[in-house]
Design a protein that fits this description.
Length: 233
């Protein structure tokens, strides 16, 4: 039976797709849990800051993600509910990555988003390194995301900063143009692309051209290694 807990914090739903601020680490420093404990209670995740009252949480499922370099990885999924809503409709979703150690589950990483994603986490190799990407999505017209990207080296997991490269990207975009939708990098190819919006463009439709950027992981951060754009006249 699932047990709900109260988490005394609030959440934020991003309005803008572009971000230039570093994200706070979502690596978890929790003691290993028994499988029963992991099933019965939510771990405390960073839900951000807002006036929204999204405080009740339940564990929906725990499933095997992959056997990875001798480690068994599992994925726990959480659902958050409005505490004052008698219908207890979902107001957010959490994802926690855990590794199995001595018949226990050790939490590694946890992320929260306001929208449910139909995508599954992906495990891949790139330039001799191993990675796991975890969808973290937000509702709203900006279709924003703050996906998790974990790298594995020297027997340890590290979170890759997938957001601050956008500050460099913003500097490369010509004046009068902007990005109004969330960016969704292809981590396997390490590329990201988007249309460009003129000031007069509606949210649905970019008419200012498009860009493609190549990315790389350096010191646990995404960085731009190449940038090309096609500006509409």
């Amino acid at each position: 039976m699932n047990v709900t807990i109260l988490i005394l914090t609030t959440i934020v739903f991003p309005v803008f797709a572009m971000s230039s601020e570093p994200i706070s680490s979502r690596m978890l420093n929790e003691k290993p849990l028994t499988k029963k404990q992991a099933t019965e209670r939510c771990l405390k995740l960073d839900l951000g800051t807002s006036k929204l009252d999204c405080t009740e949480c339940k564990v929906v499922s725990i499933q095997n993600l992959a056997d990875f370099d001798g480690q068994k990885l599992s994925l726990a999924r959480y659902e958050y509910s409005w505490s004052k809503d008698s219908g207890l409709k979902e107001c957010g979703y959490g994802t926690v990555v855990m590794k199995e150690t001595s018949s226990k589950l050790e939490p590694i990483w946890g992320g929260f988003g306001s929208a449910k994603s139909s995508e599954e986490p992906k495990i891949f190799q790139l330039n001799g390194a191993s990675f796991v990407s975890i969808p973290v999505r937000y509702s709203g017209t900006a279709a924003a995301q703050n996906d998790g990207l974990l790298s594995f080296r020297n027997g340890q997991w590290h979170e890759v900063d997938t957001q601050t490269y956008q500050a460099d990207l913003k500097k490369r975009i010509p004046a009068g143009l902007s990005i109004e939708k969330g960016l969704y990098p292809d981590y396997r190819k390490m590329t990201v692309e988007s249309g460009l919006w003129k000031k007069s463009d509606p949210n649905c439709c970019a008419s200012g051209g498009q860009f493609t950027a190549k990315l790389s992981v350096e010191n646990d951060r995404l960085v731009i290694t190449d940038y090309k754009q096609n500006i509409a006249k």
